[in-house]
């Protein structure tokens, strides 16, 4: 189907050359030609329902194939009468022009040749984007009320498809155009099908075959501005046609448009913009983080994909975390009372402060908003553009009202001043949640001390001990986060560059931020050695909700990574025993 040997069409024309459109059919009644059609196999013709609304074969006196002229000589012509007409059961004119399609069974099969052959039909999976070149053919009027002049040769014209949204936004309005229709023509007018062309084919060429996309159905006038022609969309009726023609079925070919369909961006009154479903963005994912027990003093790329480097005039000042697609969370103490946003940038996906970072992205800052509670406060830094999420850039979950039981294993990460070597690699360490003493466990979360330094001597590369105290056998393997501050009033557990970073705990397979590294309340009395006190992030829920709205959703629960891994538990026990032996050697 769809391969006319005599068709060499490249650009638009007027009179069709003989044999160019060998599937073109002329339906004749008592007054001569009244509608077109298309040959779809050797026995069936496709046309418009409004051409044969009664389904009465006697209304058609002759069906001509291979015809070129309505008044001149047609040496390649064959004619048949009609054995049967099948009108689509849902055609309901004049109430609607919908389902304007019918099938005509010829009295006998035709013989194919260069001048008579079937067209291919578009399958249900075909796509005809706005602008697809299409051809219409027929013997209809050449203008409103202007008949085709003698000798009334077959006419052809090339027109572009007009998307259904654009067609609904034209003079027809939304109600007149359905999904069972396809429009084509110039919005400025000038080229169109007209009276007498009804039932004829609209075709497009792909991969050497001509595929029928439409059946001439209706229009307002002929070639009027803002009124493209409307056609029955053939691809909508593949199953119906196959159900009627059970033997020697027509050839169905999929037409696939390329590029972008501009019609998707068209909107007007009654045709609202298309809302593309936004995929769910889950928080707390770290595909490259395999943390189970212990850790290392230096993170690798992608282990903490929510980490952000807040930079003022190009220099790292504080840490932070990506908590939504627009905001990074940090410590309000990182900023002045009236920060100048143009001085700040946020870097995501960064591992090293010095050196190559192939996975990082930098963002300008559009706004900085700080909470206003008594004592320590947090800040939300709004990014000028949304980041593209990857294995190296992911938002962390905000705990909300989530609790982290005593014994929970949590982590802190940051670019500690003076640590991480010359490249200033991202530092990480593990800690455990403790029972708070002499401070409110409602407002605070307490952990084992995690600001550590190496002990001098032969064990400096292996043994880690608490700052300001004797070397103790800690119940959690802990690693250096950085050096302590001096007398600037900040927590000795928050080294320069770590400020604003997160305390992160994992629950149900997702990472949650339990706290921001803030200053400690200087009046807090700590009776337990080696304890850190964090202000719970939940204290700032009202502020966070006001700025962020709903928090991101954690991924569906999965089994905790540590469960069911006996090798991990063995390693944990082995490390504890090793530290115990090292501690005993020191004393």
Automatic annotation (TrEMBL):
<dbReference type="GO" id="GO:0006508">
    <property type="term" value="P:proteolysis"/>
</dbReference>
<protein>
    <recommendedName>
        <fullName>Peptidase S1 domain-containing protein</fullName>
    </recommendedName>
</protein>
<dbReference type="InterPro" id="IPR018114">
    <property type="entry name" value="TRYPSIN_HIS"/>
</dbReference>
<keyword id="KW-1015">Disulfide bond</keyword>
<feature type="domain" description="Peptidase S1">
    <location>
        <begin position="292"/>
        <end position="549"/>
    </location>
</feature>
<dbReference type="InterPro" id="IPR033116">
    <property type="entry name" value="TRYPSIN_SER"/>
</dbReference>
<keyword id="KW-0720">Serine protease</keyword>
<dbReference type="InterPro" id="IPR009003">
    <property type="entry name" value="Peptidase_S1_PA"/>
</dbReference>
<feature type="domain" description="Peptidase S1">
    <location>
        <begin position="10"/>
        <end position="246"/>
    </location>
</feature>
<keyword id="KW-0325">Glycoprotein</keyword>
<keyword id="KW-0645">Protease</keyword>
<dbReference type="InterPro" id="IPR001254">
    <property type="entry name" value="Trypsin_dom"/>
</dbReference>
<dbReference type="GO" id="GO:0004252">
    <property type="term" value="F:serine-type endopeptidase activity"/>
</dbReference>
<dbReference type="Pfam" id="PF00089">
    <property type="entry name" value="Trypsin"/>
</dbReference>
<keyword id="KW-0378">Hydrolase</keyword>
<dbReference type="InterPro" id="IPR001314">
    <property type="entry name" value="Peptidase_S1A"/>
</dbReference>
<dbReference type="InterPro" id="IPR043504">
    <property type="entry name" value="Peptidase_S1_PA_chymotrypsin"/>
</dbReference>
<keyword id="KW-0732">Signal</keyword>
């Amino acid at each position: 189907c769809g391969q006319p040997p005599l068709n060499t069409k490249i650009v638009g024309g007027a009179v069709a050359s003989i044999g160019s459109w060998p599937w073109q059919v002329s339906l004749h009644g008592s007054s001569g030609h009244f509608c077109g059609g298309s040959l779809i196999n050797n026995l069936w013709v496709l046309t418009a329902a409004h051409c044969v609304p009664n389904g009465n074969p006697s209304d058609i006196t002759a069906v001509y194939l291979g015809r070129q002229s309505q008044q001149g000589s047609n040496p390649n012509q064959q004619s048949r009468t009609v054995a049967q007409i099948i009108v689509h059961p849902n055609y309901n004119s004049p109430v609607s022009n919908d389902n304007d399609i019918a099938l005509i069974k010829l009295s006998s099969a035709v013989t194919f040749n260069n001048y008579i052959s079937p067209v291919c039909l578009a399958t249900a999976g075909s796509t005809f984007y706005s602008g697809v070149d299409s051809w219409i053919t027929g013997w209809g009027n050449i203008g409103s009320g202007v008949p085709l002049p003698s000798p009334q040769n077959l006419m052809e014209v090339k027109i572009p498809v007009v998307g259904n949204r654009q067609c609904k936004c034209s003079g027809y309005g939304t109600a007149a155009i359905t999904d069972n229709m396809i429009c084509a023509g110039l919005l400025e007018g000038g080229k169109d099908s007209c009276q007498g062309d009804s039932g004829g084919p609209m075709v497009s060429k792909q991969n050497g075959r001509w595929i029928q996309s439409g059946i001439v159905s209706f229009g307002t006038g002929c070639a009027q501005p803002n009124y493209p022609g409307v056609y029955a969309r053939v691809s909508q009726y593949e199953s119906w046609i196959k159900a009627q023609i059970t033997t020697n079925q027509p050839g169905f070919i999929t037409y696939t448009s390329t590029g972008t369909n501009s019609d998707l961006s068209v909107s007007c009154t009654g045709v609202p913009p298309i809302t593309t479903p936004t995929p769910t963005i889950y928080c707390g994912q770290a595909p490259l983080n395999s943390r189970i027990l212990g850790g290392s003093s230096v993170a690798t790329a992608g282990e903490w994909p929510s980490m952000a480097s807040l930079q003022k005039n190009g220099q790292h000042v504080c840490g932070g975390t990506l908590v939504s697609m627009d905001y990074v969370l940090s410590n309000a103490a990182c900023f002045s009372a009236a920060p100048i946003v143009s001085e700040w940038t946020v870097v995501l996906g960064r591992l090293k402060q010095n050196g190559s970072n192939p996975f990082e992205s930098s963002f300008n800052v559009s706004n900085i908003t700080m909470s206003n509670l008594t004592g320590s406060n947090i800040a939300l830094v709004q990014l000028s553009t949304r980041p593209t999420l990857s294995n190296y850039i992911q938002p962390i979950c905000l705990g909300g009202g989530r609790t982290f039981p005593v014994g929970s294993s949590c982590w802190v990460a940051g670019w500690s001043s003076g640590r991480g070597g010359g490249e200033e690699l991202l530092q990480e360490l593990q800690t455990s949640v403790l029972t708070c003493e002499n401070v409110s466990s409602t407002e605070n979360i307490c952990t084992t001390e995690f600001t550590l330094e190496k002990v001098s001597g032969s064990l400096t590369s292996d043994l880690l001990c608490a700052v300001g105290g004797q070397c103790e056998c800690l119940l959690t393997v802990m690693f250096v986060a950085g050096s302590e501050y001096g007398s600037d009033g900040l927590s000795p557990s928050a080294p320069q560059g770590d400020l604003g970073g997160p305390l992160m705990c994992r629950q149900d397979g997702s990472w949650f931020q339990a706290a921001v590294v803030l200053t400690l309340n200087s009046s807090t009395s700590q009776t337990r050695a080696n304890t850190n006190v964090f202000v719970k992030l939940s204290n700032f829920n009202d502020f966070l909700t006001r700025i962020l709205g709903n928090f991101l959703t954690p991924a569906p629960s999965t089994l905790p990574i540590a469960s069911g891994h006996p090798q991990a538990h063995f390693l944990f026990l082995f490390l504890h025993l090793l530290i115990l032996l090292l501690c005993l050697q020191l004393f």
